[in-house]
Amino acid sequence: MKEPEGYVHSIETLGTLDGPGIRYIIFLQGCPLRCKFCHNPDTWKTNSGKKYTVNELIEDMLKYRSFIKKGGMTLSGGEPLLQADFAAALFKECKKHGIHTALDTSGAIPLKVCKHAIDEVDLVLLDIKSIDDMKCRDLTGKGNEDALNLLDYLEKTGKEVWIRHVVVPGITENYEDIEKMARYLSKYTVISRVDVLPFHKMGEYKWEQLGLKYELGDTQPPEKESIEKIKSIFRGYKLNAV
Is residue 92, in this structure, part of any structural domain at all? Predict the structure, then answer.
């Protein structure tokens, strides 16, 4: 049987922003969404990037074992669940080596084609773009139904979840929507943390390099006071917003 292979965009060997502790972060290639605030549009294209086998990645990962022993490995993207078979195989192999695993996903892939990968991971970082389906569709090109279905499944199976939400002025920086989201999320017992992420334009140059129009060129990052207010809304519903 052929060893699973995956298309990898890039690797960050000592990351600290995508899961607990110091982590070996693998960014897989390919994404079905077209988020207006995306800072990695170069990950959109499928079947491109560098091909790796699971064993090749594990071999490289183990070089950093002393650094990541209290952290682990995070699979990100793009949308890593586009390569669900590869993700499942990688999570299984990490487990054999006692390496904690996290999945950073938009939840945009239907559960029926990626459940086997979800079942193998320790922690899911679920990026909810908007609790409003139409706003989510306008922002990303796809509604939020699959993401919310995934959250239901994670609750049912008792899998730990960190929610991530990007605050974009004029789009998702809407206190009414935030209140609605906080109320919705408060019923889930598996959510241990909510990451409130300020919009930034660090990936704007990539859009230009790809010949794409960046619609948010005139949008400024949210004010610190606004971010704190949004965190306080989540905390008002007993959610651990950071």
Answer: yes
